[in-house]
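Aim 2 progress. For Shikimate kinase, the working sequence is reproduced below.
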Amino acid sequence: MRNVILIGFMGTGKSAVGWRLARILDRPFLDTDSEIERLAGKPVRRIFIEDGEVRFRSEEALLCRKLAVPRGLVVATGGGVVLNPENVANLRAGGVLIGLSADPEVIYQRVRRKKSRPLLRGNVRARIRELLEERAGAYDVAEFTVDTGMHSLPKTVGLIMEFLKERGYLEAGSDSESGGVPELPDISR
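Predicted structure tokens for this construct:
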């Protein structure tokens, strides 16, 4: 059973949509940033400060390699995961890529008070626009994209469900029986 992989810029709702989608599909939910935090024993912000973005991206790439195998998960990725073509190939090998997008102002309103975003230093509004410009086209690898600024959470999830059904990604009897996140294999770097 293929993973449903949510990609998109920070603040587009990947975690919220992923959690709700996982509940509806009765599948385990995995947030890659949370998993990296769990494995590193510290928040993403501290990883960036203490170890650097390169270390974070390395951990992210390792996790993407583990996700190359279909496990029936709903996965919310970090916003920069698509910057590494190997990550995209691994995620695509194990699942279907669903993009979430939003207008820069919508993103700003969602993230402006969050201090945990290591890439948003200084003028947050300007930094969002700068990062979106740098990543222009990077999220186009998604098979289907929903603008979460234009739709409510339930509507966004509904649109994704329709797409998954139309494309045959939802198989009869494909619901998860474990209820938890399957153990990801320990692979060497």
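The longest helix spans residues 53-66. This observation will guide construct design in the next reporting period.
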